[in-house]
Design goal:
The complex is a heterodimer.
Chain A (H helix, E strand, L loop, with lengths): L1 H38 L2 H23 L2 H18 L10 H22 L6 H4 L17 H11 L3 H12 L4 H8 L3 H18 L5
Helix pairs in contact in A: 1-2, 2-3, 2-4, 3-4, 7-9, 8-9
Chain B lengths: L7 H8 L5 H13 L1 H19 L13 H8 L15 E5 L2 E5 L12 E3 L2 E10 L2 E8 L3 E2 L3 E3 L3 E8 L1 E3 L2 E3 L4 E4 L4 E2 L2 E2 L3 E7 L3 E3 L2 H6 L1 H6 L1
Helix pairs in contact in B: 1-3, 2-3
């Protein structure tokens, strides 16, 4: 009975100590990263190195089965931590997640270079370190074609824009248009023709 | 609404960087259009990071370099300037129709478009051996004859729509098919897909069964 109880106590205090340790650890890592970011603090970086590098080596060895590659991952990851420390934003996530992301990206690019002989460093496109855009609620490309056309129309001379917009978007007839703009019908027709051929040219369609 | 999502195990491998670039790029395209998956990826990344860096038995790490010298070297390098990612849209044109492509494709090289009937295809030159990736466009009213797969086929619908006997698909849908599936996709209004195929397709009906010209075209 006594034994069981002490086991339980040990387990309990053990986990409390663990989580306390990881809390102070978290704070330490944030402080070190901040010191590197703001004052390029070598001592703080050394602390970061001793915390992360052995773990990165261990993970990389088990993933790559190659000592020298694993060392390459460590060097490359820690170099990036130094170079990009100022880009880390503690309000957006934990520092461990940030370092993990760097390590994962470095490993991915090294593996891709090995397997496909490509040095395209695609990791930065697949997992951007700086997220550039919010997720759109709508599928992104539903209106692409229309947006394209609108952008191209903006490039036309003013009088051609006028006829295109009235004719296609307001669905006026050529006659109505001539009346509305107080122009001869022939002029409206030739402007439309001109505008259309320019549009096609801009949109990459060949006559 | 997007109905087809990558499965959890695929997302975990994605987060750990263990998938081929083609598949991870497909997941990235999907998650940029799917809030739910993008949040799940963020959660999984947090979780995997925690797991990775909570190991404690690593004190005996033997580095293949001089640690102090490396720290010296690193701390003499300049911080990286904050670069705003270049999001100049990349595009592809099939028979005069131009499509904007997802950002993740901005450094991917495309092969020349090729054509069979209402199908156009541009290979994505990722150089991943037996895994072939392509942009596939089906013109309005076109389709792909009924086929099955030895390997797997991932289709990410980018624009337009298509349907098969399992249902209709919308942009953002991440569709995974393997040898257990047979399908015959058709597109009424036309569509553009990002596809990743691990082995050639096998046609199950008619003349295509014998000649299989479209099989190698799509693979």
């Amino acid at each position: 009975m006594q034994v069981v109880q002490s086991n339980v106590t040990n387990k309990f205090t053990g986990s409390v100590i663990n989580s306390m340790a990881s809390d102070t650890q978290h704070t330490d890592i944030c402080l070190w990263l901040d010191a590197v970011a703001t004052s390029r603090d070598k001592a703080a970086f050394t602390q970061l190195f001793h915390f992360f590098a052995p773990k990165i080596l261990h993970i990389s060895q088990s993933k790559l089965f190659d000592k020298s590659l694993a060392n390459e991952v460590v060097q490359e990851t820690m170099t990036n931590v130094w170079k990009k420390a100022h880009l880390f934003n503690s309000t957006k996530g934990a520092p461990t997640t940030w370092v993990f992301t760097i390590m994962r990206n470095v490993t991915f690019d090294i593996l891709r270079k090995l397997q496909s002989n490509k040095e395209d460093n695609l990791s930065e496109d697949i997992w951007p370190m700086i997220e550039d855009q919010a997720i759109e609620d709508e599928p992104f490309s539903d209106h692409i074609e229309q947006k394209n056309i609108l952008a191209v129309i903006d490039k036309l001379p003013k009088n051609q824009q006028e006829v295109i917009q009235a004719y296609y978007f307001m669905e006026m007839s050529q006659e109505q248009l001539a009346q509305h703009l107080d122009l001869p019908l022939g002029t409206v027709k030739s402007r439309l023709r001109l505008a259309l051929s320019k549009l096609k040219e801009h949109l990459g369609e060949k006559e | 609404m997007i109905n087809h999502h990558p499965k959890l195990n695929l997302l975990i491998q994605h987060v750990n960087g263990e998938l081929p670039a083609s598949i991870s790029a497909g997941i990235k395209i999907h998650s940029d259009m799917c809030k739910q998956c993008s949040e799940q990826i963020a959660e999984l990344t947090k979780h995997e990071a925690k797991l990775s860096f909570s190991q404690t038995n690593v004190d005996d790490a033997e580095f293949g370099f001089d640690v102090d010298a490396l720290i010296n070297d690193i701390t003499q390098t300049q911080p990286e300037p904050e670069v705003i990612p270049d999001n100049k849209p990349v595009a592809v044109t099939f028979r005069g129709v131009t499509y904007k492509l997802p950002n993740v494709m901005k450094h991917m090289e495309l092969g020349k478009p090729a054509q069979i009937g209402k199908l156009s295809r541009s290979r994505i030159l990722l150089d991943e051996g037996h895994i072939h990736s392509s942009l596939l466009r089906i013109e309005a009213g076109g389709g792909i004859p009924e086929h099955t797969h030895n390997g797997y086929e991932i289709t990410l619908l980018l624009e337009g729509n298509f349907k098969d006997d399992m249902g209709e698909y919308v942009p953002g849908d991440f569709i995974v098919l393997d040898g257990n599936h047979q399908h015959q996709p058709v597109s009424e209004q036309g569509c553009l897909c990002y596809t990743v195929v691990s082995d050639s397709l096998h046609f199950t009906q008619g003349i295509n069964k014998l000649l299989n010209p479209i099989g190698s075209f799509i693979y």
